[in-house]
Amino acid sequence: MPDTQRIPRIDSKSLDELMATVSTFGSTGDGGVDRPALTDAHAQARDWFAAQMRSRGYEVRVDAIGNLFGVLELAGPDAPMIMVGSHLDSQPKGGRFDGAYGVMAALAGIEAVREAARARGITPGCNFAIADWMNEEGARFQPSLLGSSVFAGELTLDFALDRRDGDGHRVGDELQRTGYAGSASAPVPNAYLEVHVECGPHLEREHKVIAPFVRYWGALKVRIEVTGEQAHTGPTAMAQRKDAVLGAAYLISAIRELVDQAPDTLHTSVARLEISPNSPNIVPGQAILFAELRAPEMATLTWAEKALESALPGCMKRAGVAGRIVSIDRRPAGRFDARLVEMTEAAADALTLPRMQLDTIGGHDAIPVLRRCPAIVIAVPSKDGICHNPQEYTCAEDLAAGGDVLVHMLWRLFRADGDLDRAREDA
């Protein structure tokens, strides 16, 4: 077992200060933030963070889809690159820890390793990069994980630039408006690490502090269009109405009922509706549903997709309307890199931090990045499991604990010249 006294720790005061400052951008005044992708608040947070990286000597790059990177070349341009990061965009009226913690910990963690190497006179063997991925949340523009998916080659740049929000604003135009339409090349990582709040209750419930995510659930993001007939809500006879929202309501109920046929292995939601013309005095002529189906195994998702397709005609007939599936974004289920899981657990043990393994049901940028390099997401507790809510909270001690695990892993990779297998063996 390595001498833990020789392994640097994160500067918890610096991490706290970074978290406090980034939380002011888009602050809702009740502990949360409202910072959807490419809003003014999001751009302000990114501008501030880019300045923080520049002031510390990082080369700031922005690629064509607006991913923001800070590159620290310590070992020369051809040396291995270890990337760390997450995202600064948030849900509308979301929490201040989701995403932002991973970006702030990336900066504080790399700086801890850098300072320790400088103080000990150690010749660097690898380079580092910080990633702030564009539109992880998918709140304003769909699909989620947009920037990291372009980085990974899962989505084309043209497709991503042409995504539009509910008001018709286009990603490409909003990148230009906010100053994040870049042209720089993205760093090419040998490994990617991300620390994140759990967004679930398991760590707190089991009195644990650290959890590598071992598996990630698959997801189907389904857009469904229901078409009825616009009419007056007063004189139009009930029997003559073709209410698009009524058809949507029947379908929402049917989607929820799928869960009862696959308990504990399927999560469903319809969390967004776009209603036209959206007047209290008009029977709606159109409703667009944004449905999600999530499961740990692809077989369950395949079954759920077929069940949804089968339920659609009956729900529409019942309301006297028409409906069709417009698009499905598919995210396959899978596993994170086993070597990085092992390194996470070794770091937690060396630091005497109670740990467990978890699945992640929510999406993370590390999932598409896995197509480019080994990747991992490391979770710390969320109080009461609350996430995407202003009441989202993780205490400073747990934030620092996750930061220490990150530094431990970065130090091992740094001392192994960025070689993941060597770093794992040394851990």
Automatic annotation (TrEMBL):
InterPro entries: Amidase_Cbmase, Bact_exopeptidase_dim_dom, Peptidase_M20, Peptidase_M20_dimer. Residues 218-312 form the Peptidase M20 dimerisation domain. Keywords: Hydrolase, Metal-binding, Zinc. The keyword DNA-binding does not apply. One of its GO terms (molecular function) is metal ion binding. Binds 2 Zn(2+) ions per subunit. Zn(2+) 1 binds at H87, D98, H196. Zn(2+) 2 binds at D98, E137, H388. Pfam families: M20_dimer, Peptidase_M20. It comes from the Bacteria. Its cofactor is Zn(2+). Belongs to the peptidase M20 family. This is Zn-dependent hydrolase.
